[in-house]
Amino acid sequence: MVTAREAVAAVVDPEIRVLTIDELGILRSVEEDPATGRVVVTITPTYTGCPAMDVIRADIRRALAAAGHPDAEVRTVHHPAWSTDWISDSGRAKLAGAGIAPPAPVRPRGVVPLTLSVRCPRCGSPETEQLSRFGSTACKALWRCRSCSEPFDHLKAL
Ligand SMILES: [Zn+2]
């Protein structure tokens, strides 16, 4: 039996399909009322203007219904605002594995980075350049590696 939390945590982001909404850090809480079985899910939107949130809400309700929780409500909380720092370490590893350069930490944890260059997810080279502010979606920028000359998506830091 899949719990409500597990069902919701497995929902993938419609734009970054390699990440679940849990790994992306937008899933705040899943609360189930033991008396009524009603589930309340709280999420925080990612990039302003990303049209994915309606899709995510529908996917959450569908996943909960499939797990035996047809009575569900999805709430949206804007504070504190989501940032790319909320992406989990496993989520960052998955992004790199999918050829998407993970965002640099906005608030470095302890260490001040010497460079803000975006590394190529294929060969690891820091010799990269931005081709376009918008990649395959508004959340990503299109970059190119000067070492292996491969284009790649970079999830914008926020
Ligand atoms: Zn490269």
Please tell me about this protein's structure.
- This protein is α/β, with parallel strands linked by helices and 158 residues long.
- The protein folds into two domains: 4-76, 2-Layer Sandwich (GMP Synthetase, Chain A, domain 3); 99-155, no CATH class.
- It contains four helices and seven strands; from the N terminus they run ααββαβαββββ.
- The chain has helices at residues 4-9, 21-24, 52-66, 89-97, and strands at residues 27-32, 39-43, 72-76, 100-101, 128-132, 140-145, 151-155.
- The protein has a four-stranded mixed β-sheet. A three-stranded mixed β-sheet has the order 1-2-3.
- Helix 3 links the parallel strand 2 (39-43) and strand 3 (72-76).
- The mean pLDDT is 86.
- The structure holds zinc ion.
- Zinc ion binds at residues 120, 122-123, 125, 145, 147-148, 150.
- InterPro entries: Fe-S_Maturation_MIP18, FSCA_dom_sf, MIP18-like, PaaD-like, Zn_ribbon_PaaD.
- Pfam families: FeS_assembly_P, Zn_ribbon_PaaD.
- It comes from Micromonospora globbae.
- This is Phenylacetate-CoA oxygenase subunit PaaJ.
